[in-house]
Amino acid sequence: MIVVDASFLAALYHPHDERHEAAMAWYERELSGVFVTTPIVVAEMDHMIRRYAGKGGERIVAANLATGALEVDWWPDAVRTCWKIVDTRPEIGMADASLVALAAHRRTTRIATFDERHFRSFAPLTGEPGFTLLPADAH
């Protein structure tokens, strides 16, 4: 189970992104994994990919969702959990808060992201000492 941030998917599908090759190599090794995100991050992904991925990018997020390559999860208490995170850490926006909440909900600490600044400074809600940020921590 790997929680997916918009920064990872944008790098994966933007061939001119400096992190594209690292994202692609790691993703190809993890293809058998389960990738999940939140509806808030889907909207962010769609915006970023349409803006930066070039021609054909407008269908990437929808195709990943339609084929099941990326799951979306939202549960009854999600908004309340996100609010608690944002209320205590105002530098964290709703998209990142939703991923922290999703990681707790799905009981994982694995997040595919290039946003190390926010996620390295945050402890998982389940009590583990930190998140495993992928592909950076994939050694």
Keywords:
139 residues; 5-stranded parallel sheet; Rossmann fold; alpha/beta
SSE layout and pairing:
Elements: E1 2-4, H1 6-13, H2 20-29, E2 35-37, H3 39-52, H4 60-66, E3 71-72, H5 78-88, H6 94-106, E4 110-112, H7 116-120, E5 132-134
Parallel strand pairs: 1-2, 1-4, 2-3, 4-5
Describe this structure in words.
This protein is of the alpha/beta class and 139 residues long. The chain has one domain: 5'-nuclease (Rossmann fold, 3-Layer(aba) Sandwich). The protein is built from seven helices and five strands. Strands 3-2-1-4-5 form a five-stranded parallel sheet. The two termini are 17 Å apart.
Number of domains: 1
Q: Order of strands across the biggest sheet?
A: 3-2-1-4-5
CATH architecture: 3-Layer(aba) Sandwich
**In the CATH scheme, what's the topology name?**
Rossmann fold
Low-confidence stretches: none
> Which structural category fits the helices and strands?
alpha/beta
Total DSSP E strands: 5
Query: What is the approximate shape?
Result: globular
State the name of the first-level CATH class. Alpha Beta
DSSP strand content: 5-15%
N- and C-termini, Cα separation = 17 Å
Helix content class: 40-55%
Quick gist of this model?
The protein has helices at 6-13, 20-29, 39-52, 60-66, 78-88, 94-106, 116-120; strands spanning 2-4, 35-37, 71-72, 110-112, 132-134. It is α/β, with parallel strands linked by helices and 139 residues long. It has a single domain (2-134), classed as 5'-nuclease (Rossmann fold, 3-Layer(aba) Sandwich), CATH 3.40.50.1010.
